[in-house]
Design a protein that fits this description.
Elements (H helix, E strand, L loop, with lengths): L1 H20 L8 E7 L4 H5 L1 H9 L2 E7 L15 E3 L6 H8 L7 E6 L1 E6 H9 L3 E5 L2 E4 L1 H9 L31 H14 L8 H16 L9 H8 L6 E5 H9 L7 E6 L1 E2 L2 E7 L7 H7 L1 H9 L3 E2 L3 H7 L15 E2 L5 H12 L1
Parallel strand pairs: 1-2, 1-3, 7-9, 10-13
Antiparallel strand pairs: 3-11, 4-11, 4-12, 5-8, 5-9, 6-7
Helix pairs in contact: 7-8, 7-14, 8-14
């Protein structure tokens, strides 16, 4: 009897030991659905991002929309919204009927203008831009806006005759400023320069700047709802010679070594940064924004997709060090300005579109 009891006791100890070394089960995952700006679609599709999120307990599905159109969506069907800047966030919260949403800003990206090398050289030779490297430079907003106000054509710029593909009015292809964040923030920056380097804050300033903004938009013809399509057109070799984009789109491309050989990145000397703002709508998504902002692996993956983590200049600089020919990691020489209120910015967009 004692022998049998001893065997049973040993078996029990073995069972306890065996249970103690069993690997813990994977955390239960919460499925959340969100609406995002198109420039973040590849980030959320990245298998490494999917895996990292799953390891932290999230399965994320997304749909894309222009950031300034998100407040017109049936937001109750989503767990979160992730516009491309902070300005649309209050409108989204109001439309979703939520208060104190504890929005977070996991990463940001400044606006840039991507240009064909021939176009960038003509701009630089005529004082509208300044080259800082073979594939990088600065767009001089004052001289550029003066040329736009005068309806200057490429043919009127000395040196353009050698490049027959440069024809018609000189303009930057943007997105629809009434629905897309990049288009809206471009108006914020250009209106600042046109308003004696001050944020447009009243009807008088709207009236002063509206005629120029109207020229910047009307010359483009049909407007795209998001940055993705014009960016892809440029990369494929079609599209306009000057395209507004996010630095993140460019930084992601150069890190993948897929940048066209003749691409030049021009940083406007006056810009409005774009802090991508996570707005939780349901309880299930409340912790996701903080996770995106603080988790080391997700921050690393955000940089791989070209985004700048908040307080993450060293991370971005280190990751893109090999691509300094295109990028300006420290944003040296760039004046960063605030955006007008949502009401003013939408009034500028309405006047710009006529």
């Amino acid at each position: 009897m004692a022998i049998v009891l001893g065997v049973l006791l040993l078996g029990g100890v073995a069972a306890v030991v065996f249970q103690g070394v069993t690997e813990p089960t994977a955390p239960k995952t919460v499925k959340v659905e969100g609406v995002i700006g198109s420039e973040k679609a590849e980030f959320f599709r990245d298998p490494d991002v999917v895996k990292a999120l799953k390891n932290k307990g999230y399965t994320v599905q997304t749909e894309t929309s222009g950031s300034w159109a998100m407040d017109r969506l049936p937001l109750k069907k989503y767990d979160f919204a992730f516009p491309s800047s902070s300005e649309p966030a209050p409108e989204i919260e109001a439309a979703a009927g939520i208060k104190g949403a504890q929005s977070t800003r996991p990463f940001f990206s400044p606006l840039v203008v991507i240009a064909r090398a021939n176009a960038a050289k003509v701009l630089a030779d005529n004082g509208l831009a300044k080259m800082t490297g073979r594939n990088s430079g600065t767009l001089l907003m004052g001289p550029y806006l003066k040329a736009a106000g005068e309806d200057r054509t490429w043919q009127q710029l000395p040196g353009s005759a050698a490049h027959p593909e440069l024809t018609g009015t000189v303009f930057i292809k943007t997105t629809d400023p009434a629905t897309s964040n990049s288009g809206a923030l471009f108006l914020a920056a250009t209106s600042n320069v046109a308003n004696d380097n001050k944020v447009v804050a009243d009807d008088a300033a709207i009236g002063r700047t509206a005629p120029l903004l109207r020229k910047l938009i009307s010359v483009q013809g049909a407007l795209e709802p998001s940055t993705d399509d014009p960016f892809r057109s440029f990369i494929s070799g079609s599209g306009e010679p000057l395209i507004l984009a996010y630095e993140a789109q460019v930084a992601s491309l150069v890190q993948q070594k897929q940048a066209p050989a003749d691409m030049v990145v021009l940083y406007p000397d006056t810009t409005v940064n774009s802090p991508h703002t996570f707005v939780p709508i349901s309880e299930d998504a409340r912790g996701l924004g903080t996770l995106l902002a603080t988790d080391p692996e997700l921050r690393k993956l955000a940089v791989r997709h070209g985004f700048r983590p908040q307080d993450g200049v060293p991370e971005f600089t280190a990751a893109t060090a090999a691509h300094g020919a295109y990028l300006n990691p420290e944003l040296t020489g760039i004046r960063q300005v605030g955006a007008p209120t949502v009401k003013i910015l939408m009034a500028l967009a309405e006047r710009a579109k006529g």
